[in-house]
């Protein structure tokens, strides 16, 4: 028999914190989307970050949805950690993952329709993504005969943890090289940081109620996700406000000192027929 909440108050607090975290994390995608739309440009947004972020959220969705909806996988979880332990995935986790995959996909779409200068996805990023998904397929083949589904989704959970670490690095390095964060939305970071802190707090509430830390290491991916998010978001905040503050002209527009190549040069445009 699975465990239930000991305190109704803590259960309500758990749900409230979880859904606030969902709102913060979900809305964190929109500042970048809106910024891209207003500028009609994705210059300054690292494409490696987007591709790796898509891999990360897709993996996290597989983990969350499988553990939340599958009674068979839940049984395997209880067999491993004990019948009294609660499933460490909440409805808001699944909702967030679905939303994250959708918004990341839309941001990737913006890359194709807006000015992107000479930016492109690096070969390293393509290689990492290919290796990760190839490894996932191999793990699926290994897990299938004995129905080791808990092990398989733990693999996807590990993938999302690794991608969370890797995905931020290209953007941080790009900001460092440009000595600028123009094109990279700070609103995204502030909301992301809020979600990370609340996500960690939600797990803490469950631990207090259950008098155990199993949910922290039973869902190590969620734990590390929160810690990694906080670390990198603080780094980006320092880059934006301390190291590379935005310089603006008299009209309040950001000054971009780097040269940006347009997608279509004047010489590439077909000449109109003379009438």
From TrEMBL:
It is found in: Lysosome membrane. Its main location: membrane. It comes from the Eukaryota. One of its GO terms (molecular function) is L-cystine transmembrane transporter activity. The chain crosses the membrane at residues 12-37, 58-74, 94-112, 124-143, 149-169. The keyword Nucleotide-binding does not apply. One of its GO terms (biological process) is L-cystine transport. One of its GO terms (cellular component) is lysosomal membrane. It is a multi-pass membrane protein. The keyword Thylakoid does not apply. Keywords: Lysosome, Membrane, Repeat, Transmembrane, Transmembrane helix, Transport. SMART domains: CTNS. This is Cystinosin homolog. It comes from Triticum aestivum.
């Amino acid at each position: 028999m699975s465990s239930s909440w000991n305190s109704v108050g803590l259960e309500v607090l758990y749900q409230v914190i979880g859904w606030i975290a969902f709102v913060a994390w979900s809305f964190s995608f929109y500042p970048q989307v809106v910024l891209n739309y207003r500028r009609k440009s994705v210059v300054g947004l690292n494409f490696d970050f987007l591709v790796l972020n898509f891999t990360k959220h897709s993996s996290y969705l597989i983990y969350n949805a499988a553990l939340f909806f599958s009674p068979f996988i839940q049984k395997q979880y209880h067999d491993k950690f004990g019948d009294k332990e609660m499933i460490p995935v909440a409805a808001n986790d699944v909702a967030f993952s679905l939303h994250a995959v959708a918004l990341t996909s839309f941001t990737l779409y913006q890359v194709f329709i807006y000015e992107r200068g000479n930016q492109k996805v690096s070969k390293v990023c393509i290689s990492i993504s290919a290796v990760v998904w190839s490894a996932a397929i191999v793990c699926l083949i290994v897990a299938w005969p004995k129905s080791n589904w808990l092990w398989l989704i733990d693999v996807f959970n590990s993938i999302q943890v690794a991608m969370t670490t890797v995905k931020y690095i290209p953007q941080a390095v790009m900001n460092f090289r440009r000595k600028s964060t123009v094109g990279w939305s700070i609103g995204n970071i502030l909301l992301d940081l809020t979600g990370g802190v609340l996500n960690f707090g939600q797990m803490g509430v469950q631990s207090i109620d259950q008098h155990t830390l199993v949910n922290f290491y039973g869902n190590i991916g969620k734990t590390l996700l929160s810690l990694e998010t906080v670390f990198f978001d603080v780094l980006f905040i320092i880059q934006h406000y301390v190291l590379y503050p935005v310089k603006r002209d008299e009209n309040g527009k950001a000054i971009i000192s780097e040269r940006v190549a347009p997608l279509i040069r004047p010489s590439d445009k077909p000449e109109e027929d003379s009438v």
